[in-house]
Design goal:
The complex is a heterodimer of chains A (495) and B (317). Chain A has 495 residues and is of the alpha+beta class. Chain A folds into three domains: 103 residues, NADH:ubiquinone oxidoreductase Nqo5 subunit (Beta Polymerase, domain 2); 34 residues, no CATH class; 316 residues, Cytochrome-c3 Hydrogenase, chain B. Chain A has 17 helices and 16 strands. Chain A has a five-stranded mixed β-sheet with strand order 1-2-5-4-3. A four-stranded antiparallel β-sheet of chain A has the order 11-16-15-14. Chain A has a three-stranded antiparallel β-sheet with strand order 8-9-10. The longest helix of chain A has 29 residues. Chain B has 317 residues and is mainly alpha-helical. Chain B has one domain. Helices cover 69% and strands 0% of the residues of chain B. The chains are: A alpha+beta (495), B mainly alpha (317). Chains A and B meet through β8, α8 and α10 of A and α5 of B.
Chain lengths: 495, 317
Amino acid sequence: MTEEKNMQDDLFFPPVRTTSATSGSEYLSEATSMKNLGGRFLALWSTDHPGRFVCAAFSDAEGLRILRAPVAETSRTFPSITHLFPLASRPERTVRDFTGWTPEGLADTRPWLDHGFWKNAPAGERDYPFVRVEGEGVHEIPVGPVHAGIIEPGHFRFQVVGEKVLRMEERLGYTHKGIRALLRNRPVEDVARLSGRVSGDSAVAYQWALAQAMERATRTFPPERALYLRAVLLERERIANHLGDLGALGNDAGFGFGLVQFGRLKEDLLRNNDRVFAHRYLMDMVVPGGLRENPGKEDISILLEDVRRLQRDVQLLKIIYDEHGGLQDRFSGTGVLDPMLAGDWGLGGVVGRASGQMLDLRHDHPAWPYNRERIPVALSRRGDVGARVQVRFQEIRHSLAFLHTVLTLLPEGPVRTPLRECGSLAEGTGRIEGFRGEVLVWVCLEKGNIVADAYFHDPSWHLWPALERVVPGNLVADFPLINKSFNPSYSGHDL
Amino acid sequence: MNTFLPFLGTSLFQMLLVGLLAPLFLGWLNIVKALLSNRTPASLFQPFRDWSKLLSKESIVPQGSSDLFRWAPPAVFALLLTSSLLVPALGTHGKTVAFGDALVLTGIMALVRVLMALGAIDTGTPFGNLGGRREMMVGFLAEPATVLVIFTASILSGSTMTFQTADALRSGTLLPTPSLVFGGLAFLLILLGENARIPIDNPSTHLELTMIHEAMLLEYSGPSLALMEWGSAIKLVIYLLLGIALFFPWGLAGDEGLSDLIRAGGFLLLKLLTAGFVLGLLETLMAKLRIFRVPEFMTLAFLLAILGFLSHFVLEV
């Protein structure tokens, strides 16, 4: 067993410990002690670099912990940790789909992202066996993957009695793009560009996480101004998405006025993104080593003006939402995520924080500049749609206050340093609190800064299973509202 | 035949009037809703454009559906257009073929609902089923209230014929009696529920799981869809005309003189513009009810209708 840790990096990057187990049983016992010590499961993926491994990422009080299990050529198996961390089930099934390696002890033998069209995955079945509920008056409602509106594809299988949902099961993978196959053996610039397209609404979160991973791998320290501006970009991305979600939540409850008003605020923000950063969704602004461009004084004053305008307008809309009886009736008590479950699964992001989980990377393991300009954690304990609405409102307020401080205190100087060359195989991880929750990027670089392999983890891997647990007991007609309040990504999950 | 022929011209005119007023009213309602939420509105004639586009397309019929699915749209449209003869639009003298009273109108609406729900269930899709089932629930709650409101108005005039009721109310006092106020409020709730408006249903939603009326139309396309949507717009106008006849009949022409009719047309336009504004305002201000609150909403309508009915005997006799 080997452990690597570097103190100097911790000042700049959130702390990471990597443990390589020598055998499957050691991996399992490490995972067990991780569970016993209160660690949260984050992600699980397979790789051939720097060896044939299944990697599991956890988070505990000290920071990120990566645990690797070797996969033998002969047996092609690895121990399943789903009995310890239920959220590991789908990632383990995905590993099986991608590589054919078998998670030993995993009860669910169905494929996940594979829909039976992949050559190397014999497990694939076209006719996916959903779990069915039997009984008097129980019937099935299949929804999607083609929906009545223009939204991303996903299939939901409801088992209902009348209007009440007994069980809901998801089928995803319709937007699988083969991101990991696309990025192998490409130069860092190409991969940085690709990372902004994993889930388009989280372009900054992904590109920053990847940049952080590459900077850690090559021991490059970007200039302070670049880090401050990255935080500006990230918070603007968060605000834009929260505004969009709040409007959509109003609309889904039949309050079209909300959609129009929040839509207007979001659109103004996106237009100013385009004006200052030359991209509405801020893609390709964050590059490994810093930022692509250095905004001038005039640009900064535009951004400050945005903060002032939003602080005023969002407050007005919050009053309208808060005092609207019909809207609050739809929001409160709908889609309750039990704080016990959220705690057990270690759910972060807006959804976790709305169920009492005090988890926010910007607060817990702050990367520069979040360790300098602190941002409070938005929290609610009710766990319903209304709580998630409130957390979004709070986060917008916190982000706006943070933006004001950061933009006023913005250090001068360059925004880019060239990425250093790595001599041999070098690994790095990046963790960023995106608007949905924690985005994790693992990257392995080869000599000449060629990406050997990388993995992008979207918080939606946690949100989708949680959604399945929340929906039963609610009305069928309330599902769109609950789904919107979670707002999981299809694209980021399907890779 | 004798009673039919003289009225043929006016009857055709009435159907044409309601048929054309329907898309215009929908256009106006959408303009009001757009303006109230700071959006740039579409043209008043947008429904015409939408439907003429749909009419020029082909109708896709789902596999395994029967003739019921194919014939429901023309049947629904024809029934609704014909039933427009049962409510006064301009004059109260009934120079059209008034082949039935307000109860017949309620019956036709029930028949339309059953046809729509059967057409939706016929396809075998879960959404058609879901929508049909929910629609029947709303209808079954709304119908008793509708009948009670009609009875309340009929007591004052001694007839359930809408033309005679309107005529009696028109020539009577302008002061609203308590029974009519309660009846009017009940009717407003019924109108919202029966016509799939917010807070019961959301006509502009794309979320198939929340739909009532739209879920029944999901499988329709091309001309069939155009007929269904046009029919729904006609239904809305018929309900408004009924509401006007029962609760705001002043301005309706008593004679068939041309100047009277033109004056009545002006009044009708004014009332429909006002109704569109009020409906648009209500729809903008309210959110959609949770579906299990719909019975409470319709019960309120029934309760108001009962109050109206009773207060006539207690206060007005």
